[in-house]
Amino acid sequence: MPLAAHSALLAAAVAIVAAVSLLVPPPFRFSFPWTPRDHRFADMVLTSATIYTADPARPFADAMAVRDGRVLRIGTYQSVKELKGRHTRELNLSGNVVLPGFIDSHVHFIEGGLQLARVPLRGVRSKDDFIARVKEAVTDKHPGQWIFGGGWNNDVWGGDLPAAAWLDDISPENPVWLSRMDGHMGVANSLAMKIAGIDKNTNDPIGGTIMRTTKGEPTGLLVDTAMKLIFDVIQKVSNRERKEALLRASRHALMRGVTTVVDVGSYFPGVSDEKTWQDFSDIYKWAHSMEKMIIRVCLFFPMPTWSRVSDLIDENGRSLSQWIHLGGVKAFLDGSVGSSSALFHEPYEGDPGNYGLQVTDMDTLLNRTLESDKSGLQVAIHAIGDKANDMLLDMVDMVVNLNGVKDRRFRIEHAQHLAPGAANRFGKHGLIASVQPDHLLDDATSAGNKIGSERAERSSYTFRSLLTGGAQLAFGSDWPVSDINPLQAIQTAMFRKPPGWEVPWIPAECLTLDESLKAHTISAAYACFLDHVVGSLSEGKYADFVVLPSRSWDEFSTDVPGKVLATYVSGKQAYP
Question: Signal sequence span per UniProt (predicted)?
Answer without folding.
Answer: 1-19
